Amino acid sequence: MITVWHYLVVAAVLFGIGLVGFLTRRNMITMFLCAEMMLQGVAINFAAFARYHGNLHGQVFVLFIVAVAACEAGIALALFLMLYRRAKTLDVSSWQELREVGVPPTVDTESLPPVPAEPADPQLSPAGRKPAPTAEETVRV
Amino acid sequence: MLTPSNIDALQTALGSDLLLFLPELVVAGGVVFLLLCRLVKALDRSHLGGVAVAVLGVALLVAVVGVREAAGSAAVSTPYFAGMLISDPFSAFVRTLLLAAALLTVLLTLLTGIPDRDDSGDFYALLLGGTLGMMLMTAANHLMLVFIAVEMASLPSYALAGFLKGRRQGSEAALKYVVFGAGASGVMLYGISLLAGTFGTGYLPNLASAVAARMGAAGGFDPLLLTGLTLVFVGLGFKLAAVPFHFWCPDVFEGAAAEVAGFLSVASKAAAVALTARLLLTLQAAGSTMGASPASPWLLPGTVGLGVGIAGAVTVTFGNLAAFGQTNLKRLLAYSTIAHAGYMLLGVAVLTPAAASAVLYYLVAYLLMNLGAFAVVALVRNATGAEDLAAYRGLVWRSPVLAVTMALFLFSLLGFPPLAGFAGKFQVFAAVYDAGKGASGAGRPDLGTAFYALFAVGAVNTAISAYYYLRVVRAMILDAPGSTVSSPKSGAVDPVPVSPDLGPANSGPATPYAASVYLTVLAALLVAAGVVWNPITAATDRAAAAFVPAVRVPGPNAGGAAQR
Q1: pLDDT in tens, A43-89
Q2: Rounded CA separation B298/B319 (Å)
Q3: Do A72 and B182 touch (CB under 8 A)?
Q4: Of B363, B354, B414, B406, nearest to B547 (Cα)?
């Protein structure tokens, strides 16, 4: 038998994952998605309570949460795009110019793991001639 | 509950409801108009500050007329739009205050010219949108409206903080504000879901009586309720910049333009204080009317109120101590803002209508003095390009009007007697002291001692804050003008040397005539409000009377209200 508590636990876990991710991640978009995940946890809460009480108040709440989250995403992603154009990175720690007088900037004590380079896209030859198979392509097939 | 009969009632009441909503409608219409101005070539090419002034002026006029009519009618508080919003003297007062703050900010931007002609439409649309959200915050009567209004006030603020797109620091300020805000709103919403979900309603009066009943049954410590309330106050604490959710405030204020920082510090704070006071005092009114035992009026002040009071005491102490070493004026004023949020929280924490009235008076004084201080910062930035303390050395010789009015604003922030800041602080502290006396007299000596301690913390902090306010005054009046002002940490785009010939003979670029008038009017209002309290205290008392419990409880709680 699934009671309201089961839903509440799922919602709390989702909210907790979002909160932890929000506090620990450094990529702007990941942070923001974690904040959105917190909102989705809340939405489950409201839907579960609406079912429990047998009224639609919670459902209406959820609709408004979705709308507000969309507005927040709009403004935050526009800002992140602007910041990315300027700093060429999504790492929030590159934005620490504003801080207390006399406090040194935070720098990484150990460097971040290297980002694996993405494989190059296969080059298509012009039509009409059979491409010579390269070593990479044989692997893919 | 939306039953057919309720929908019919909603339709029949729509006319009068829309009338109550008129100031908000005017502001909303202004936002739409400002956005549509982009489509008309002639309007797109002109500076739209005048439109914003007109919209806010009309809205302010409508709001003031509404206040007068509400004062004459018998109905003290009218829920409207099916109970989603409430129109009572409290919301009418704060609404007027917010519109005045927005109007003064727009006038300031016209004087300093910070949104240039191309950006003016967007800037004023955002400013008006934020004001609309704050007005809804003060009138919210349902937890859903609380959430929507907080978001409506926050989202335009994020954009305003980063409005100086060319400056790296402006973008950083916006980033920090958005990230903090997104997290805080998520946490607050979780608290709302716990509270509204547990009781099956978000309608504040019903919710308040249910919460009070449950709290009374549990003896004040119901873990679920306290969790929900705490999480809601995390969101409000973020808006208030209360410790420990204050981290965004100094950085955002330093990175944003001084005009925007002034608006955020005054209007956003007023709305958040009003919302906090409404939530807490509605709860308290519900708790003290239904309680049968004599201890029940002190149940909420002893749990939730004390928690808010401790947060306020920590906030005020931290803000004042952190302001000590600041050299950037906007950062210093940001910490001063945090400290003042703490003073207001101290007043809200004792949960008496008398204290709410004092906090409203404090908000009026705070509007004048803080906006004035930020206006001086903006004008000095326009003249020198610098915002750190070095730019203020010997300001009195270069521009006497700026220096004298700034000294008045700072003395008022400090709480010096003939100014409004003193009157506000005095009333808040007196209300906290009265509440302590009342609690001691009603058989809660522990709570009384706690309130006395809050009072002492506030008083000691006022003395501490003298150091950093007077440091600025000393730099302006006693120090010799510095030869250059340049510091790698200053918020200036390009620090330029201050030429000593910015003196009175050449005061055209330093302080334009209109700016002098603006500052003088603000300072004069500050002095007037500090000398003649009565008109404002009468209005704030009427506003706070919205929270006097309908069934008066015999006891010191009601006595405190009657004293005023």
Answers
A1: 999 999 999 999 888 999 999 999 999 999 999 999 999 999 998 88
A2: 29
A3: yes
A4: B354
Q: How far apart are CA B18 and CA B15, in angstroms?
A: 5
State the residue range of the domain holding A70. Answer: 4-96
Name every chain A residue with its beta carbon within 8 A of the beta carbon of B254. 98
Q: Which helix (H) or strand (E) element contains residue B87?
A: strand B85-87
Cross-chain CB nearest to B182 (options A35, A41, A99): A35
A7 touches chain B (CB under 8 A): no
Listed in order, strand segments (DSSP E) in A1-141 are: none
Mean pLDDT of B518-526: 94
Model ipTM value: 0.85
Residue A79 placed within a domain? yes
Question: Which CATH number does the domain housing residue A53 bear?
Answer: 1.10.287.3510
d(CA A105, CA B190): 33
Number of domains in chain A: 1
Residues 106-135 of A with CB under 8 A from B: none
**Which amino acid is residue B12, in one-letter code?**
T
Residue B562 has pLDDT above 50, yes or no: no
Quote the minimal CA–CA distance from A2 to chain B in Å. Answer: 18
Q: What are phi and psi of B87, to 5 degrees?
A: -110, 105
On chain B, the residues whose CB falls within 8 A of the CB of A101 are 325-328, 489
Q: What is the pTM assigned to this prediction?
A: 0.88
Q: What confidence tens digit (pLDDT) does each residue in B219-273 have?
A: 767 888 889 999 999 999 999 999 889 999 999 999 999 999 999 999 999 999 9
Closest to B35 (Cα-Cα) out of B155, B130, B123: B123
Please tell me the distance in Å from A38's CA to the nearest CA on chain B: 6
* Average pLDDT of span B334-356: 93
Residue in chain A lying closest to B144 (CA): A61
Whole-Å CA distances, B406 to A138, B403, B454, B474: 76, 5, 30, 12
**Is residue A136 a part of any domain in this protein?**
no
Q: What's residue B118's pLDDT?
A: 85
A26–chain B Cβ distance below 8 A for any pair: no
Of A58, A65, A98, the CB nearest to B197: A58
- Summarised one tens digit per residue, pLDDT across range B160-213 is 999 988 888 999 999 999 999 999 999 999 999 999 999 988 899 999 989 888
Smallest CA–CA distance, residue A42 to chain B, in Å, is 5
Residue spans of the domains in chain B: they are 4-563
